[in-house]
Amino acid sequence: MKKEIKIFSPATVANVACGFDVLGFCLDNKGDEMVIRKVSEKGIRITHIEGYDLPYEANKNVAGVSALSMYENINPDCGFEIEIYKNIKPGSGIGSSAASAVGSVFGMNELLGKPYNKTQLTYFAMKGEALSSKSEHADNLAPAIFGGFTLVKSTLPLDILQIPKPSELYATLIHPQIEIKTSDAREILPKQVSLKDATAQWANVGSLIHALHTSDYKLIHRSLQDIIVEPFRKQLIPHFDDVKFAALEAGALGCAISGSGPSIFALSQGKETALKVENAMQMVYSKTNIEFNTFVSDINIKGIKILKS
Amino acid sequence: MKKEIKIFSPATVANVACGFDVLGFCLDNKGDEMVIRKVSEKGIRITHIEGYDLPYEANKNVAGVSALSMYENINPDCGFEIEIYKNIKPGSGIGSSAASAVGSVFGMNELLGKPYNKTQLTYFAMKGEALSSKSEHADNLAPAIFGGFTLVKSTLPLDILQIPKPSELYATLIHPQIEIKTSDAREILPKQVSLKDATAQWANVGSLIHALHTSDYKLIHRSLQDIIVEPFRKQLIPHFDDVKFAALEAGALGCAISGSGPSIFALSQGKETALKVENAMQMVYSKTNIEFNTFVSDINIKGIKILKS
C-alpha cells in the first residue's frame, strides 16, 4: 500500500465566455504540486505550505476543508498530512482554490485504494471551493478532476459531462496582478437578465458544444461570446476591452474573462497563433503600470495527475 | 427546365423543452403538400388552397409572403402559381405557418435551378413566418428546410447548425383542438428571468446538444427540461401536467410544449415506447371533452422534399 503521493493539480478556466457557472477547461502547464501522506495519527493536518501565505488550520484551508469532507465520509483508521506547493496565485481567476480543493481529495483517494469516483471527488472538493467563493459550484473543479472541457449540467445532483477537445486548440492566459474576490465578482452580477439575452446565451452554449464535438474552429469563434456576465465583470478588470481586441486581432478564436477574473483567457487554433496572442496581450499591459504575467498552454485532457507515488 | 414541382413540407417541433427560440426538429409523417408552377405571367399567385381556410392574396398568405420575398430578390422573367394542400392545422404548434413559408420558396428555388442555399431559403421563409407570429424567428423553419435537429445560433446573421440525431429517437405528438395564437403565447412570457434559472437552462441546452452527439438517451432525458417558458405557457394548455406525467410514466425521455402550443410532444427511445406514450397521452385527453388527435413520427432527417417534378 502506497504511503505517500505527489500530485500535479492543474489550473483551470471556468465559464469559457458563454458558459457562466457551467463550462470549464483544464490547463496543462500551470498548477500546484501537493504531497499527500498517509499517517497513523488520525485527522487531517497541513504540514507544509510554499508559494503563498495560506492558513495551516485544516478547517480554514480550502484543501483542508475538502479533505475533511472526504475524511468524515469514509472515516478511515488513519490520518493524512498535506503539503502544498502553490504555484497558482490565489484570486487569479484560474482555479487556484479549485486546484487546492481537488488535490487533497484526489491524493487521499489514491492512497485509500480509490474508493470514490471522479464525480464523488468533485462533491468533496465543492466543500473546499465553497470556503473561498461562498457558494458551492464545480465549474473549476470538474475540469481539474476530469480534464479537457467539462459541462456541469447540475450541481444537485452533481452531473458532469466531458466534452471532446479539438486537437489544435490552445489557450493563452494573461494575469494582471490585481485582486478580485470571487464573492465580489458574483455580487456585481445582476439577479435578473432579459429573456432575449438569455436566449442568445443558450444558443451560444449549444453551438459551442456542437463546435467542440465537430472541431469547427470558426464556430468556436462565433460561439465564444458572453453578453450576460462580461459587461458587468469587465468593469473590474482594467484594459479588458483592449486585451480582447488585441487578442482577436492577433487571430484568437475568442477572448473572455477567466472565471471571475482578473485573468483573461483566449483560445486559438494552433500554438503559433496562441503565442502571437500572448504577445499581443503583453503589448497592451506593458503600456500600463500594472504587473502581469502570461502563458500559453495546451488543453490538458488528463486533468489532475500523479507525479510520484 | 422543370415547369412544376410537387413537394412535401413537413411539420416541425420548435423549442424542444430547454431550447426556447433556438432548437427544433423535423417530423416525418405529418406535413403539407404544395404544387409550385412556373408560368410566363409575372408575379406570385395562390391558385388553390385545400384543407384549411387561408387567404388567397399573396401578401396576406404566409406562403405568398415568403414567395414574394424571394421573388423580389431574384426578380425573374416569369411568375409562379402556388397550390396549397394543407394538412397541418394552423395554430396547432407544429410549424404550420413554417411549412407554408418554406414550401413556396423551396419549390421556386428548385424550378429556378437552385440559385439559393438552404440558409438563404430560411431567410426568405422568415418573412412569411413573421406574418403569422409577428416576429422573425427560424426555429420551425430551420428543421423544415435542413431536416433533423437544428440549432438557430442567431437570426441576424442567420446561423443554423445541424445537430446529429440518435437513431432510435421517435416523437409522439398530441394536438388538443384548442387555439393558441403564437403572438399570445409570446406575450405571456416574462421579459426578465433570473440569472440562476437562465444558467440552469443553458446547462440543459449544452447537455442536450452533447447528448444528441453521443446518442446518450439517459442524458437526453435529463436535459429535456424547461424551467423558463413552460411554467408560463402550460397555463394555456389544459391538462398539460397530466399529459406530461403520463408520457414520462409510459417511458418517454421527455415531454414538453411543441413550439408555442397547444400541441405537446414527447421524445422516446424506440418506436414501441413512442406508441405507448401515444396511448398514455390519449388516455388523459379521452377523459376530457376536448377534441384531440395524436401521432407518432420518426425524426425526419431529410426535411422538405420533392414528391414529383
Explain the overall architecture:
The structure is a homodimer of 309-residue chains. By secondary structure, chain A is of the alpha+beta class. Chain A has helices at 62-74, 96-111, 118-133, 141-146, 182-187, 195-214, 217-223, 230-233, 240-249, 271-286, and strands spanning 4-14, 23-39, 43-50, 79-85, 149-155, 158-163, 169-176, 192-194, 254-257, 264-269, 292-298, 305-308. In chain A, strands 1, 2, 3, 4, 5, 6 and 12 form a 7-stranded mixed β-sheet that branches. Chain A has a 4-stranded antiparallel β-sheet with strand order 9-10-7-11, sandwiched between helices. In chain A, a hairpin with a 6-residue loop joins β9 (254-257) and β10. In chain A, α1 (62-74) packs across α3 and α2 (96-111) packs antiparallel against α3 (118-133). The model of chain A has no long low-confidence stretch (mean pLDDT 96). Chains A and B meet through β5, β6, β8, α6 and α7 of A and β5, β6, β8, α6 and α7 of B.
The proportion of residues in beta strands of chain A is 25-35%
Mean pLDDT of chain A: 96
Task: Please identify the oligomeric state.
Answer: homodimer
The shape of chain A is globular
Alpha-beta classification of chain A: alpha+beta
Spans of chain A of at least 5 consecutive residues whose pLDDT stays below 50 are: none
Cα-to-Cα separation, first versus last residue of chain A:
10 Å
Count of separate DSSP helical elements of chain A: 10
CATH architecture of the largest domain in chain A: 2-Layer Sandwich
- Level-1 CATH class name of the largest domain in chain A: Alpha Beta
Q: Could you spell the SSE succession of chain A in H and E letters?
A: EEEHEHHHEEEHEHHHHEEHEE
Helix content of chain A: 25-40%
Number of domains of chain A: 2
Largest sheet of chain A: 7 strands, mixed
How many beta strands in the DSSP annotation of chain A? 12
Largest interface, with counts of residues having CB < 8 Å to the other chain, equals:
A-B, 38 and 38 residues
CATH topology of the largest domain in chain A: Ribosomal Protein S5, domain 2
* Radius of gyration of chain A from CA coordinates: 19 Å
